[in-house]
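Cont'd.
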Amino acid sequence: MKRIVIHEEYCIGCHLCEIHCLVQHSSSRDIIKAYRLERSHLMPRVLVEESGPISFALQCRQCEEPACIEACISGAMHRDERTGAVICDESKCVGCWMCIMVCPAGAIRQNLLGTRIASKCDLCYGADVPACVAHCPNEALTYEEVGEGR
Amino acid sequence: MSMRIVIIGNSATAVGAVESIRQYDQAAEVMIISEEPHMIYSRPLLSHYLAGEIERPRLAYRGADFYVKHHVAAVLEDRVTAIEPDAHRVHTASGAEYAYDKLLIATGGQPIVPPTPGQEAEGVFTMTRLLDAERLLTYLRTHTVRRAVVVGGGMIGMKVTDALVKRGLEVTMVELAPLILSAALDQTASQMLSGLLRQAGVEIHTGNSVSEIGARGGHVAEVALKDGRTLPCDTVIFGVGVRPNVELARQAGLRVNRGIVVDEYMRTSAVDVYAAGDVAEAYDLVVDMNRTVAIWPNAYRQGMIAGAHMVGVLRPDKGGVAMNTVEAMGVPAMSIGYGNAPEGEYEVVTELDAPRHVYRRLVVKENRLVGAILVGQIERAGIYTGLIRHRIDISEHRRNLLSGHLSLLSLPDQYRKHVVRGVGIEV
Amino acid sequence: MALSLATSQFIIERDETRCIACQVCVRQCANDVHYYDEENDRVLSNDASCVGCHRCVTLCPTRALTVRRNPLEFRPNANWAAETLRNIYKQAETGGMLLTGMGCDQPYRIYWDHIVLNASQVTNPSIDPLREPMELRTYLGAKPERLALCGGAQRNPVLETVLAPQLQLEVPVMFSAMSYGSISFNACASLARAAQAAGTYYNTGEGGLHPALYEYGANTIAQVASGRFGVHLGYLNTAAALEIKIGQGAKPGIGGHLPGEKVSLDISRTRMIPEGADAISPAPHHDIYSIEDLRQLIYALKEATHYTKPVSVKVAAVHNIAPIVSGIVRAGADIVAIDGLRGGTGAAPTVVRNNVGIPIELALAAVDQRLREEGIRHRASIVVAGSIRSSADVVKAIALGADAVYIATAALVAMGCHLCQNCYTGKCNWGIATQDPYLTKRLNPEIGSRRLVNLLRAWSLEIKEMMGGMGVNAIESLRGNRDHLRGVGLNQVELDTLGIRAAGQ
Ligand SMILES: Cc1cc2nc3c(=O)[nH]c(=O)nc-3n(C[C@H](O)[C@H](O)[C@H](O)COP(=O)(O)OP(=O)(O)OC[C@H]3O[C@@H](n4cnc5c(N)ncnc54)[C@H](O)[C@@H]3O)c2cc1C
């Protein structure tokens, strides 16, 4: 299965990935409307980590043996049958934060803006290329077939 | 003829086993036998259900098509009464008898109810099964219930208390130990949570216990505490803890301590018999010994390991980490590994911001993180869990890690690259 | 502090209906032009520091930004132009030389734009490059007086002449010298990878060769300059050719100075100087004061590399360029690189850049003419540099007599340079002319090399198209073929110097 590969040496810390992630998961899918009208209940599912000149954009690593699926008590965290991606079914999530407690990358976050849900990358479900990858100006994120996958 | 796998139990462990069996093998016959009449549901969600946060359908941990999709024959509402390891057979209460090639005991645990005079009164409940929740909810609907006494200030007692408060009840918590959640938290965190509960109107009696339940007209009316006080109440809920359901195994002659003794593949002392989940005594990598740890992630993972081994795939258990999350009045708290290890023997770092209900306690031994307690700010807590689980030497990075905010950039480079680059790429 | 008389060169226009305060511009500007006002949740700009590099404009996800020249005008004065006044203000404040980067931006005549190409009509029909082979392959190096064949049998003659070492170019365009130090490692890596992929060469400049780039040795020209930075036997032998740098078009007659702040550990290792020490290239080579001295260095390099690599000598185009190049050829150079008035630089005194040297077009024509007259044109290849901007410039340069061209500015532009001319500040927002680790990572060599290869490919297609139009199917037949050129709007002296006729003649 395809995964997002992080090339930390080329991350320029612009945060465009976060911006476009947020837009992609808005209902208007329009950057200006998303920011003007929907900002209060949206949060990006990718997180730019920075320390000095080093930075990288982190989203769910799509583990072979996802600890979040093991730990999820509601069954919300699951592997999508079609794409093989690890996805959180937000209609099932109760916001118990077990997944946050076990994700070694710290790639799942609390979304408290609406109903409490665990917020994570869904590889822009249905898209050929996730928004963060498509909009990374320096190809510091690429979408590649790596690992055995399923 | 294809192999037949029998699983006793229908919860996290069983699901983990079935999903891993089917990942590798489509031919094996799989049968689930469960005492409970329900489809697969999530036990931890019971408190959310009790609180009224979710409707009953959302208790389903897997879809209604789970058995069909995974070709599982489910025998529900029947209780296994005996295992014959030599004959490779199990017997059930309904009189049925099933032969197996491989057997998984995933019977979980029983609520502990300390023998208390008056406990047979109406309005006394435990809270581990869906049936318990349904009974309590019915009781709440059909009776005037204003005041509840929750016996036990552990994880379950805490969750039940939180749920009942959300339902609008006046709750009193009675805990034998001097502190609530003392198994998981240290004093500071424990007191923070008690403080929050009190703010929400919960009365907490620690170092105390219920010595007698008093009834009026067959219904709970009050409890008498060890210290002599009596508390008027309309219901009593025992949330003291669970004991592994090991009787079947013991009778069958399997090696049993507190739980059923298993190896790294969840094999018991009997040939072709496995045990996993709350009932098993599996390896805990933090304390470096086998013990029972009744948490959902362990149950699912151990089920997976057992399932894989049954169909010939070796996924040895690297061990579990005890952990849990609770919440008091919207403030989340986590305990991971040996978070409440005593100072002195262990290197302990704490950070407290009391007004904002934020607390962090990290425990280090021999340059390795062995535990963490987080209150209020739980963001990215899994990074700690990862460090504990992989026994990462943090000597170079302890300063970054133990101070300020948590990020992957404060981890050792090699480990960070391993986490960041994920599967399939050389570090 | 006394009032500064400097005024903003640019003004930044932010379309508030589009700005979402995402702060990408804030994070991207190394000059700290943009800043976030938390109280009002708005991004504001301080125009005064803007250099006009367009980094923010290009990355703004809502296209909310545009940068304009500050319309502020002085009282019109044909003698005292605004630029002149600003320079005086600056110097009156700082007491220092004015520094600049990139090539001369003054309105000297650009002869390329006054030269037009021919095309075949009716007789000697044009060639369709899509249907017929077109040869752009070029060999650089000394060519023999004559070829001697032996073996007698007409069918299989054997070449008896020993040929001098040659560089083989699939396209007559190379990347000109830019040192590691003046540009970032990622920029160097982009050039190296692109040179390899496109079958051409890039030039290390005077900063030595980073160990990580040794693998591109077969496409590397290693420079030896007056500072001798990073020159050792391994360096010389790894490269495909060597180049002695005498002069540079942007700053003829003066040396170079890489300030110590830019001499990072990596650069210090590559240059073989202490970390943090200024890297000073003297104006002259202290061992070259005559053609004979130059000959000694040329042969020292040839000896060191066992006569297996062509040796180039690079000079700035100055008044007596023709006899100078003649001397260089006679000193044994296999290639002479001539860098014109508009050649680029990472840092130069503005006054030198804008006033010293001559345009490359005139220098090239004079050199080619002189070498032919002396009968030594074949002894060395001529490579010209100093603002080759397009495939048309390449074709015109070759028709004027060049064997190949060097591009530097065009290559940087391909990688993202916007010619803001602030290279010397080390704050290049495009990650090119900087060593700041926050900025260098902005140039991903994967992308940089891809863009460079694309540029060369595009130019190759255009060159073939133009050649086809002229009825020429090999770049060899175009070389020095000034009959294909005509001048437009040039006076007779200029036409004579260029050796071309006026259009219509
Ligand atoms: C209220 C509550 C809240 C919890 N919250 C959390 C939480 O937030 N996080 C967390 O990690 N864990 C939590 N837990 C613990 C978690 O639910 C258990 O670790 C998990 O359910 C263990 O799964 P299991 O499959 O091993 O056993 P169980 O879930 O106990 O299932 C045992 C199964 O065996 C069947 N069974 C037993 N005996 C027989 C028999 N003789 N014959 C046939 N069938 C039999 C039962 O019907 C049942 O289906 C909570 C538990 C409770 C009760």
